[in-house]
């Protein structure tokens, strides 16, 4: 975290952000509240304040969304493989990928950190094909 961002956030907000953010501890609001011995609304309020001062740090993905996304993008697994690995339904994995992609603002093709196989339209149109994924592209 840069020095400028740190100065716009209180110590409590930094702790909450790190507890909640998927690239740090990835805890739920309820888990963060229990760890800090405070209410979930206090956690939500702290994150709202962080969002106002540092919107570039968002979105925050759930632990499950982040895990599915990483299996898909970093480990190059198909949706069918992720279903087996995580013991989820095919529809759940597909929906999580679509929503995560939207949350991350990935809409075009060939952006700096995007690949053609991650287009929303491709995922959406391959609903009935559980083997569709990165393996088919590369």
UniProtKB/TrEMBL annotation:
InterPro entries: Sig_transdc_resp-reg_C-effctor (IPR016032). GO terms for molecular function: DNA binding. GO terms for biological process: regulation of DNA-templated transcription. This is Uncharacterized protein.
